[in-house]
Write a structure and sequence with these properties.
By secondary structure, the chain is an alpha/beta fold. The chain has 2 domains: 112 residues, Rossmann fold; 159 residues, 2-Layer Sandwich (Dihydrodipicolinate Reductase, domain 2). It contains 10 helices and 14 strands. The longest helix is centred in the C-terminal third of the chain and has 20 residues.
């Protein structure tokens, strides 16, 4: 199978490195000629600066779209209508209205369409989901999560703080990962309360978001995402009736990935503690990309990923809407 990657930045390179055996990287595309030439050289493939030529190329069956948010919609929509399978980086679009246009394209031309919420594929998250689904420790009561980094010098001048290019700030960036994980564990949440903050970076887009979600089963998620976190942090806690799962780290600058299981004793008091450490290398990109190509080979044309992406952006827009009053 021939695949093209549109977007030759950091994420595009990660996707190239994550391609499974049997998949041929035919073309990489980017308007930045230096970046695209370097990536094409490193992976011994063709380079292109016009994404429309790539989308129309009959020898390419699948696309990975890893551009900035502004271009996710036009590239993805045309690729789907051209009959290509598409893996799109999260959040999939700048806003819900744009994402709905991608959904309409899918309804016209069924292909495999996935959105790149790779955190579901981290080994600690996979283990946590297995523990929860076993029902050994009862149902989930609440989830509490913190996700943050500290940016870098000049961060406020980059595309992520440009509304035209990004569509939103930290809530749309790291916050959507947290919403996706809550959906993964608890299903859709119907009550939404949240605040966004412009706390440090001089920008018209938020650098912090603090929000609470609740579903009809009474499960609650208390979440925060920020780029005013001077030491990179990922902490995801799942409180069940008879145990607690705590996940710390994502590898790399976020620290080694670890899952701690706190098991309540019949007499309560201090719990029994088990720790599970995972490899330093982040394998979530490889596992997610493999899943994408597995769906293609098995012709799984489900709209589940699209529905999840639409739900996530509906939560984001509710929080933005309430903060604009």
């Amino acid at each position: 199978m021939n695949v093209a990657i549109i977007g030759a930045g950091l994420i595009g390179r990660k996707r190239a490195n994550a391609l499974p055996k049997g998949v041929n990287l035919s073309t990489v595309c980017d308007i930045d000629q230096q970046k695209v030439k370097e990536l094409a050289h490193d992976f011994k493939c063709e380079s292109e600066i016009n994404w429309r030529k790539v989308v129309k190329d009959p020898k390419i069956q699948a696309l990975i779209v890893s551009t900035i948010n502004k271009y996710l919609l036009p590239i993805t929509r045309e690729a789907i209508l051209a009959g290509k399978h598409v893996l799109i980086e999260k959040p999939g679009a700048r806003n819900l209205e744009e994402l709905e246009k991608i959904a309409k394209a899918f309804n016209k031309r069924k292909t495999v369409v996935m959105f790149g919420y790779n955190h579901r594929y981290h080994p600690s998250i996979i283990m946590a989901k297995k523990i929860v689904d076993s029902k050994k420790y009862g149902k989930i009561l609440f989830i509490r999560a913190k996700y943050g980094h500290g940016g870098r010098l000049g961060y406020e001048k980059e595309w992520r703080f440009n509304k035209v290019l990004a569509g939103g700030g930290e809530l749309l960036d790291q916050g959507t990962h947290l919403i996706d994980l809550v959906n993964h564990f608890c299903g859709e949440m119907t009550e939404v309360y949240g605040l966004i903050g412009y706390l440090y970076w001089r920008s018209k887009l938020e650098d912090s978001a603090f929000f609470i979600l609740k579903n009809k089963k009474g499960q609650i998620a208390h979440l925060s995402a920020t780029c005013v976190e001077w030491k990179n942090l990922f902490c995801f806690e799942v409180m069940m009736q008879r145990a607690k799962i705590q996940i710390d780290g994502l590898g790399g600058n976020y620290g080694r990935e670890k899952l701690t299981l706190y098991k309540m004793k019949p007499e309560m008091g201090p719990p029994e503690v088990q720790e599970f450490l995972f490899n330093e290398k982040d394998t979530s990109w490889q596992d997610e990309t493999k899943n994408f190509f597995d769906r293609i080979s098995k012709k799984i044309f489900t709209d589940k990923s699209i529905k999840d992406a639409l739900y996530i952006l509906s939560i984001v827009e509710k929080i933005y809407g309430r903060n604009s009053l």
